[in-house]
Amino acid sequence: MAFLIVKVDLPAAGRSYNGRLLRILRRRRPLIAGTNRADILDNTLTRPGPFDRQITIGKPDIEGRKEIFLVHLKGINLEGEPEEYAGRLAGLTSGMARADIANMCYEAAIQAARCKADAVAMVDFKKASDRVIGGLESNKLISEKEKEIVAHHEAGHTVAGWFLEHADPLMKVTIILRSSGALGFAQYLPKEVFLRTRKEIEDIICMALAGRAAEQIIFGQVTTGASDDLRRVTRMVYQMIQVYGMNESIGLGGQLSFPKDEGNAYAGNPYSNPYSNATS
Questions:
Q1: Is residue 178 a contact partner of residue 185, using CB atoms and an 8 Å limit?
Q2: How many helices (H) and strands (E) does the chain have?
Q3: What is the number of other CB atoms lying within 10 angstroms of the CB of residue 26?
Q4: How far apart are the C-alpha atoms of 239 and 271, rounded to whole Å?
Q5: H-type helices in the chain, by residue range?
Q6: Please, is 154 exposed, middle or buried when counting C-beta atoms within 10 Å of its C-beta (0-12, 13-18, 19+)?
């Protein structure tokens, strides 16, 4: 990192800054760099000077995903028209990056080849999506009791999502064991919105906790299967309080924010409390 900073920042000892600048301008060689982890870059690189123009490329929206699918579907023999497939697949892959889409198309072609099909069908893309999201199907055996627990856990998510007004639509639920270690998973279709209300976030939290609640209701106890749900819920709740000011008891009735990336006293630990023990 230090070597890169020296090369793109101030000139070496004994050389004038203006002279180095003129040499760069004469060469007309732009310096371009890219990263997937901009959050861990040194401030010396991100401040004005080394890289004056910063372009952030996020995950594509539905139109962007459609265009990406059209690119990767060109070399695939499909049962239907690429435009039709691209439109349908774009609507089913919210949150996927370009690499995920490329991998999904590749896996769909492999799936069709395994089945000795003449063309790639939509069912192949759905199976490929499961692989991209959850990993390969695992041949490991689990007990019937565990299958029953996982089935009720995922059913809890499904039932809650059906009755909650603002929960993300649930597209698919499976209890097939995956190589990632997941005993099952629920696939949602997140709404592509920029703003969410407190009620919407609470519904998402309720849906996430519904699997654990189903375990408690049916079996009288909970298991470790809800660990990922609890991790997501914890992150959302802390964001509601620390970042979005959606709590009347903290920060002048929810009028203050305590984000962890602005050098405040609570920045070192995302679970540190900007309030007293009495308030908690």
A1: yes
A2: 11, 2
A3: 8
A4: 10
A5: 2-8, 17-27, 43-46, 62-73, 82-92, 98-114, 122-134, 144-163, 198-219, 227-238, 251-254
A6: buried
Q: Cα(230)–Cα(226) distance, rounded to whole angstroms? A: 6
Hey, do 62-134 and 144-254 end up sharing a CATH topology, with the first three levels equal?
no
Closest CA to 270 of 246, 228, 244, 238: 238
Residues 234 and 271: their CA atoms lie apart, in Å, by 9
Give me the residue spans of the domains in the chain: 2-46, 62-134, 144-254
pLDDT beneath 50, residues of the chain:
10-14, 262-268
DSSP code at position 136: S
Q: Catalytic one among 107, 146, 154, 215?
A: 154
Q: Is the separation of the CB atoms in 88 and 104 below 8 Å?
A: no
144-254 CATH, one of 3.20.20.140, 1.10.1740.10, 3.30.70.270, 1.20.58.760: 1.20.58.760
Active site residue 81: no
pTM of the model: 0.70
* Cα separation of the two ends of the chain: 42
Task: Name every residue whose Cβ is closer than 8 Å to that of residue 13 and which is 6 or more positions away in sequence.
Answer: none
Quote the pLDDT of residue 12: 47
Structure tokens at 219: 């079996």
Radius of gyration of the chain, Cα coordinates, nearest whole angstrom: 25
Count Cβ atoms within 10 A of the Cβ of residue 223 and give its class: 0-12 exposed, 13-18 middle, 19 or more buried.
Answer: middle
Q: Which CATH class is domain 62-134?
A: mainly alpha
Q: In degrees rounded to 5, what are phi and psi of residue 7?
A: -70, -35
pLDDT at 120: 94
pLDDT by residue (tens digit) across 171-206?
888 888 877 777 888 888 888 788 999 999 999 999
Which of helix, strand or coil describes residue 163? helix
